[in-house]
Specification:
Elements: E1 15-16, E2 23-24, E3 43-44, E4 60-68, E5 74-80, E6 86-90, H1 97-109, H2 116-124
Antiparallel strand pairs: 1-2, 3-4, 4-5, 5-6
Domain RNHCP: 13-101
Protein name: RNHCP domain-containing protein
InterPro entries: RNHCP
């Protein structure tokens, strides 16, 4: 399809995921725009703006996180393994819930500090949750 076509048209193409190799069909997403694999949640760097097909990179977009939009809808944060570009894609109805939860829990399971610090800080807090450093 020509560049910009998907800005105004539904994506009805079947594709093969570059990461897990599964065949992905457009149905099941509950959206007109299937833009990532529902199994491994990976995508391909095709767009600069959603649907424009202006990106020349073509690298694998790996799912690195999730965030919750103000309406409560979840979205996947992807980072291109080739150029480092970041993008956000709403989740699809048939996305793997265990993969979504594992991505969401990654910062909790691997905090940027030793877990022993939580216990230490908890001991230092008073009943109101304030640190007794004074």
């Amino acid at each position: 399809m020509k560049k910009g076509y998907y800005k105004d048209h539904a994506c009805e193409e079947t594709f093969t995921c570059d990461v897990c190799g599964r065949t992905i069909k457009p149905d099941g997403a509950s959206s007109d725009h299937r833009n990532h694999c529902p199994y491994c949640l990976s995508s391909k760097h095709l767009d600069i703006e959603p649907g424009d097909r202006e990106a020349d990179c073509g690298g694998v977009m790996e799912p690195i996180g999730v965030w919750v939009r103000k309406n409560g809808e979840w979205a996947i944060i992807h980072r291109c393994k080739t150029c480092g570009a970041l993008s956000s894609n709403r989740i699809a109805a048939d996305d793997n819930p265990m993969k979504l939860m594992s991505i969401a829990m990654k910062p909790i399971a691997n905090p940027p500090f030793p877990l022993e610090r939580i216990e230490e800080m908890s001991r230092m807090m008073d009943e109101e949750g304030k640190l007794g450093l004074d």
